[in-house]
Amino acid sequence: GRETSLLELLEHMQGMAGTKLQPTFAAGRIGDIRRSVADVDLLHRRIGSCGPSRLEHALHAVLRQESTTSA
């Protein structure tokens, strides 16, 4: 995978929802995690490699799943 910033995630989600919100920025707080990237090696070892997935495709899949389970 690759690192995705919160701003990138917001941009993708807004594109899917058809919204345009402006984020509010504030000073960092003690204990804030500045950067984090998942290590998916354990997942790949347990279920096998499922290949790379684009963030947009994964978000669409999650939203489709959520809409079918909450209907």
Please give a handful of descriptors for the protein shown:
71 residues, mainly alpha
Give an overview of the whole structure.
The protein is mostly helical. It is built from three helices and no strands. The chain has helices at residues 6-17, 41-47, 55-69. The relative contact order is 0.16.
Count of helix runs: 3
Largest sheet: none
- Taking pLDDT < 50 over at least 5 consecutive residues as the criterion, the unreliable ranges are none
> What oligomeric arrangement do these chains adopt?
single chain
Radius of gyration, in angstroms, nearest whole number: 15 Å
> How widely separated are the two ends?
31 Å
Q: What's the β-strand tally? A: 0
SSE pattern: HHH
**In which range does the helix fraction lie?**
40-55%
The class by helix and strand makeup works out as mainly alpha
Q: Beta-strand percentage?
A: under 5%
If you average the pLDDT, what whole number results? 83
Backbone shape: flat
Summarize the structure.
By secondary structure, this protein is an all-alpha fold. The chain has helices spanning 6-17, 41-47, 55-69. It is flat.
What does the secondary structure layout of this molecule look like, with pairings?
Layout: H1 6-17, H2 41-47, H3 55-69
Helix pairs in contact: 1-3
